[in-house]
Q: What sequence folds into this?
């Protein structure tokens, strides 16, 4: 594997917290984001401008984005399901936004109350306004391996949605193993299909760690040429509409792997470990990072 660098996209403030049962205060969210930025992460998904009826935990997105002390080298992103969400994200000063759909119809319907085709129709005006505002747009494809309602999802179906998002104008496509059931051979097959439609350099992977395969899946994806990886400090995370799914791959564990491979991340592992321990204490949760638990320095 060649020595080069990997871009990490930090999910903890958004994917990490959206499914927490108890409401997390705006102040804790802001402190989490500021700590993550200080550890060297340059892309942080900070908020979500979705319906507060659907995801109450993310209702304070505007206060969070307006409240953080910004670091100039950091891009603060937000999830936006529709034009209404984008407009709110722009007012709050998001540097990047993300639209999200799925490769399986049932998950898409459960998650955003729309078919895949309808979701793409909604994204068209959003992308037009984002381009006009010079805001990069990420597109998520959830259920890129398995769907909680339909089972295995074919690589062809994933490739089709990824292509549609790319053709709509998304700058980057993140492929989500929403359930965390994937294994490396399936990841390779999926990436092989998707990379026929979207250049590998514009693809990211997003693994949940339900079955403990996330790091193995990352390794397989790196070997295919992936260099953008989503993760969440302390392994926080979960989608309210993906029953049974565990948190995201822990950022600490990812950085430990990447450093071991000689790949640069620009992130301080020591600082991340501290942040992972801090947020786990704040939430009263067991730290989901193996490195975070083992780190002795
Ligand atoms: C998409 C909708 C809004 C459709 O929801 P809907 O009910 O069909 O929407 P609607 O257009 O009929 O509007 C209903 C109400 O929602 C409001 N509304 C409408 N849009 C917004 C908005 N942007 N911001 C704030 N409010 C909004 C709208 O104003 C209206 O308010 P009311 O008149 O009833 O008071 C809803 O289904 C929704 O918000 N879903 C979000 C679900 C979600 O956030 N899921 C988790 C994120 S995805 C994920 O975690 C996976 C990922 C990305 O991490 C990758 C992976 O692991 O796979």
A:
């Amino acid at each position: 594997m060649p020595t080069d660098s990997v871009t990490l996209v930090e999910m903890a403030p958004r994917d990490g917290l959206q499914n927490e049962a108890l409401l997390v205060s705006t102040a804790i969210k802001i402190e989490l984001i500021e700590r993550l930025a200080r550890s060297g992460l340059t892309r942080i998904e900070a908020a979500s401008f979705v319906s507060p009826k659907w995801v109450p935990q993310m209702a304070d997105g505007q206060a969070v984005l307006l409240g953080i002390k910004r670091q100039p080298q950091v891009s603060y992103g937000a999830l936006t399901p529709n034009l209404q969400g984008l407009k709110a994200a722009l007012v709050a000063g998001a540097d990047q936004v993300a639209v999200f759909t799925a490769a399986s119809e049932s998950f898409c319907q459960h998650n955003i109350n729309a078919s895949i085709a309808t979701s793409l129709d909604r994204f068209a005006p959003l992308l037009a306004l984002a381009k006009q505002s010079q805001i990069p747009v990420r597109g998520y494809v959830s259920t890129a391996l398995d769907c909680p309602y339909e089972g295995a999802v074919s690589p062809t179906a994933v490739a089709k949605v990824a292509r549609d998002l790319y053709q709509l104008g998304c700058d980057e496509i993140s492929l989500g193993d929403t359930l965390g059931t994937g294994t490396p051979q399936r990841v390779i097959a999926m990436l092989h299909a998707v990379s026929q439609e979207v250049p590998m350099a514009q693809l990211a992977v997003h693994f949940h760690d339900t079955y403990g395969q996330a790091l193995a899946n990352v390794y397989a994806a790196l070997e295919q040429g992936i260099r953008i990886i989503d993760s969440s400090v302390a392994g926080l995370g979960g989608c309210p509409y993906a029953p049974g799914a565990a948190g995201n791959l822990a950022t600490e564990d990812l950085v430990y792997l990447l450093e071991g491979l000689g790949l640069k991340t620009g992130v301080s592992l020591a600082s991340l470990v501290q942040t992972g321990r801090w947020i786990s204490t704040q939430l009263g949760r067991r730290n989901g990072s193996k490195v975070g638990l083992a780190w002795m320095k």
User: Anything to note?
Assistant: Residues 15, 18, 48-51, 54-55, 79, 81-82, 84-85, 100, 111-113, 140, 142, 176, 178, 206, 239, 241 surround 3-hydroxy-3-methylglutaryl-coenzyme A (CB under 6 Å). The first strand starts at residue 7 and ends at 10. The chain has a mean pLDDT of 96.
